[in-house]
Structures are given as structure tokens and as C-alpha cells.
Amino acid sequence: MSRRNLLRGAAAGAGAVALPSLLAACGSGPGGDGKTITLGSNSSDPVPKKAFADAFSAYGKQSKDGRKIKVNTVDHNTFQENINRYLQGKPDSVFMWFAGYRMQFFAKKGLLHDISDNWAGYQGFSPALKAQSTGEDGKQYLTPYYYYPWAVFHRKSVFEQHGYQAPKTLDEYIALAKQMQKDKLVPIAFCDKDGWPAMGTFDYINMRSNGYEFHKNLMAGKEAWTDKRVKDVFDTWRSILPYCQPGANGRTWQEAATSLQKKQAGMAVFGLPHPGAQFPKGEQADIDFFPFPVINPEHGQDAVEAPIDGFLLAKKSKDLKNDKSLESAKDLLKWLATGKAEDIYLASDPNNIAVSDQADISKYSPLQKKAVELVSGAKQISQFLDRDTRPDFSSTVMIPAIQTFINKPKDVDGLVNSIERQKKTIFASED
Amino acid sequence: MSTPRRAARRGPRRFTRRDLAVLGVLLGIPILLDVAIVWGPTLASIVLSFTSWDGIGDIHWVGTKNYENLFTNYPQFWPAARHNLLWLAFLGLIATPFGLLLAVLIDRGVRFSRFYQSTLYMPVVLSLAVVGFIAQLVFSRDQGALNAILADTENPTDWLGDPDLNIWMILLAAAWRHTGYVMILYLAGLKAVDPSLKEAAAIDGASERQTFFRVVFPTLRPVNVIVGVITVIEALRAFDIVYAVNKGRNGLELLSVLVTDNIIGEASRIGFGSAIAVVLLLVSMGFVVTYLVQEIRGEKNR
Predict the structure, then answer these.
(1) Considering CB atoms only, which of B44, B156, B266 is closest to A11?
(2) Nearest CB partner across the interface for B48, out of A7, A88, A111
(3) Which of A48, A391, B38, B254 gets the highest tally of CB atoms within 10 A of its CB?
(4) Which letter does DSSP use for residue A396 in this model?
């Protein structure tokens, strides 16, 4: 017994890892024949859960070898918080996770199975998608399934009523905000109680000002947060803050989306599913969006923030040691990578859009079609601040930092110095 | 073996082998459990607090770096420590005396005292996490009941989002529950006070106030000890209410939340989180040791 196992055993006693080991226990389901594929799912919300169930049963039906999927669904947040221990314990063969740095982090730790051979046969995926599915070693680890772009959302009827035009540049955006104030609207619905929604605004200002490459390097810890370019981001943000709903740190995204729905607020930076979830069915068609405005013409509107969810193989899964099971798992990924498989999912969850350009978009809502245009026209696709960097950095440093900025927008120097100091200690712990 | 001979033998041989075996098992199991689920993890935390373990890779020793980092380079740490102490002070100096006051009033038999008693005790059956959800319904800026009652729509107060304000609102919510808890304990204590003591004090011409502070309160000493212990425990283990409200961020930081954020969450800074846990352990030990010393002294004097 090594020292690490001993410590781990002690920690298990504390119950610190009791939950993940329970999760893992679910994973040791039937196997043997190599035809049952275990799949760990974080889709605990009813809509996606049902949509996935549809997709998985469709896989079972089309499989000529009688393969089927056994799904272990775990509450979304629990799954996310325990992913570390889940992947080291007894994970399911296939599991759902996110693209980008968050995936690369685990790939580097040797917890993911290389699926480059699968990728050689995939069709209908853009180079940007491939880049987001690739680890630092150049091998592919993720099969993307859907994404949900972020943009500035608003109500068509409000824009028509006041004769507003979608702004193209930051100046126009601020001018529009001023006009909305005159019309007794809160220009921008704003929320950050949960800690993450405001990250979308930060990412967009950063990518519009400094470009995607800088965003990527900053998130990977390769650029200094004390850099003038980062301070510029906060300065720009401060110039928008007077038009944002005050008290953002006490407001959930549901409340912010509700104020947009009630026509109290004019616009909001959100992901595709967020306004949809708070608008009643009859008003869904009234949702519209425009891409985040241009700040630096050099970068234009090249980058689109569009988090990608997909499927991966867990290296530590016992079943994958069996060649037959491995083949089954890879067969499942191949099927999930087809446009048809994505169509089945999106038929019951219209808040996302398919990644494959072979997916059938004829049944999409006008909003979804517009979202497809947005991402297919993007030169780069970013994930989200908390998916493009180390999880320990985003949750323990960036969430409090952005909330501090919202409370005290003037002390940017103190803020970036504090972020940089903490970043150094966290990124230094890398092996 | 006859009885007189056995009585003559003193010391360890009083027990037969079987007695020893039974004792050994009965004492041994709890001791083993205690070591395995209390002391083992405690020691593991202390050991891990000197490493930079992330839960995946190998363990690297980093000496006291986690602690240096914690004290100088973690903006949430000092606020969290202050909030824990504030929690203790608020419960100890405001909520607990208030509970005592209510108990005394109810004990004197004010009208509808049973009604007050059950109303005030009601929140105690709720988990603090539930109290947190209720607090959000009341204090939310846009949709909360309090701002609706105040009809404050122009520039509503952000009870839970303003970091200078929210800790007080949460303390109020926590005290709402704590007061009822304390009240019930004191009510039980007051019922046990011998009425003849009060009569004697009245005959001696003591005022109500004098009777309470000189006669009744001192006889409540055992209850005071229990209430004191409960208050300290409640203050140090405070977690669920702030976690339910906003995950313990933006003015609601607590040491327990920082431990969770670093260890249980996706962050997995197990070494760093352990260092925070050790700080919390030391603070708790301070109170536990003081309490034990007092108790042991009290035993001797009795």
C-alpha cells in the first residue's frame, strides 16, 4: 500500500470522498459481454435528461450488434464537483464533459482515452471544433455533441416599439443604453450571484479588445493579469457598468432573465438556453440577439463564446480494458458524432444547437438558425472563462475577483495584482 | 472459584478473562471507530496541509507554503475568519440573551404563552439550509417580500447582494432559529428552579430584577454551560445557510465554506484546503480546551 493510498483511505473514512465513491459504485454495472456500454451523465435536468434518453435508445435500436447503453445520471453540480475523484475511481466507460482546457487538464493527467482514430473518420466538424477537442499533445479526446453560443439577448417587440437598432460597435452599444435609460428601461440586465454569469461579459470584452489568442493564453496562465491589456478590459467594463442593473451580486440569472422577459430591462449578455428558460412558450418567438459589439476593429467579431458539451472515454474504466467493450464505446461515439444523432437530441431540447454541419436545421426555430449562423461565421470559438482555465483558478480566484470588481469597480490595480499573485501560486503547483 | 477468595483479590485480577475480552471488544470498537473516522482524517488533514496535493498526482511536500499563502495571498481568508468571530459574537451576545429573555417572559406566564412558545420554537425544526432559502424569499432585491412591503421599487436595497449588509441579514436569519433553540433550553431550566427559592427571595424583600440575577440565574448554571457550548458549536459550524444563499461568497465568507470550496469542489486544492481546515480546527480546539478545563475544575470543586 503506497503512501498515497493510505492517505486516500484515511480521507475516505472522513466521508470527504464518500460521495464520489458512491458515484463510482454505480459504474461497476454489467459488462462481460462487451455490448453494454456504461455512460456517466450529468444531465439531471428533466429536459436534457429526456432528450438524451431519446438519443440513447435510438442508438440501441440502430445497433446491429445488439449494443445498448446503461446510463448513470448524477445531479449536474455533484457530477461537476466530483469529476476529479470520479475519473480516478471506477468511472463509467463513456461520460459527458466539456471541451477546451477543462478537458485538456484531465487529458494531461492521463485520465482520458485517446480517440484520434475515431476523429480520423468524423465528418461534418469544423476545424475550430477539432481544436476544442484536442489535448495539448495533439491527440483528440472529445466527441462534441452540441453547443450554446453567448450573445446579447433582447426582445424583438421592445426594439420595434422604440425603434432600436442592434448596435455594431461599443459606442453604438453605449448610445443605445443611454437611449434605453431615457425610455425608462434598465439598459442591461446583469447578474452574478452564482458567480459565473458575469464571466461571459468579461470574456467578450477581453476577446473583442485583445483577440482570442490573448484570451486563450491569459486563461492558460501564460499572460500576466497585471498586463495593461487586462486593465483595459476592466476599464471598458467599468464604462458599461452604469447602464447595468445594480445589485448584480444579489441576483440570479433566472431573475435577470425575468426582468428581460418583463420588459423592465432592454438587453442581457446570456447563453442561448438562459432567456429561453425564463420566457413563457408564447413569448419564445420574441427573443432575439445580436453579437457582442466590436471594440477593437482588428479583432472585430471574430470570436464567439460557445461552450461545447460532448462525450469522452474514461481511461480508468474497468470495462475499457476489455477490447470488445472498448470497441462498443468507440462505436457509440462514432454514432453520436453524426448529424442524425444530434437531431434526435435537439428535437426535445431546442435550447442548444448541433455541432455537426450535417445536422438537419430545417426544424430549427429562427433563433436557433441565427445561432447556427453566428457560430459558423466565427473565426474562433472560445469556451467559457471557467472552461478555458484550471477549475481551481476559476472557482477560487476568478469568481470572488469578478464579484469584487462589481462591488468596487474603481480599484482595478489592486484587483489585478491580487489575481496575478494568486494565479502564480496556483499555476505553480502544476507538476 | 469461591466468592470470598475473589473478593480478597484486588486490582486487575478482579476481571476474568472473559470479562476482559468483553471489555476489550466493547471499548476497542469505539476506540477503533474513533481513530478511524475522527483522528485518522484529522491527522491526515494536518499532514496534507503541508503538501500541494491536487487529488490526482503525486504528493509534494511544500512545507508551510500553504499557510503563508493563506495568510498573505488569499483575499477571502481574513474576511472569513472575521465573519466566524462575528457569528460567534452575534449569537453569543444578542441571540442567546434574547432567547433567555423570551424564556423568562414566557415562564412568568404571559397571556398566550403557549402560542408564543410554539411560534418561537417553530424555526428550530427547520434545517439552516431551509432557513437560507426562506431568507432569499424575504431579502431578494427584485422579488423579495421585504422590499415589496417597504414598497421600495425606485432604488431597492440589495439585502443579500451588498457585501456590507448581507452578513447582517443572514445573521438575523440564523438568530431567528437560534433564539428559539436557546429559549426552549432555558424554559426547561427555569421550570426546574425550586419555587421556594423565589419565595424566600421575595420574603427577604428582593426586587424582581434582584431575584432573577442573584437567585434564579445562578441556579441555571448547568443550562448556561449547555447553551454556551451550543452557541460556540453553531457559530463554528455555520455553513449551510450561507451556502444556500450564495455559496458563501461576496461578503458571506466563512472558514467552513473556504474548506469546501477548495477540497470538495472541482478545485481540488486539497493541500491548501487542508490548511484552512487546520486553522478552523485550531480555533475550535481553543474553545474545546477552555470548556474541558472549566468542566474538570468544576468537577473537582463539587
Answers:
(1) B44
(2) A7
(3) B254
(4) I
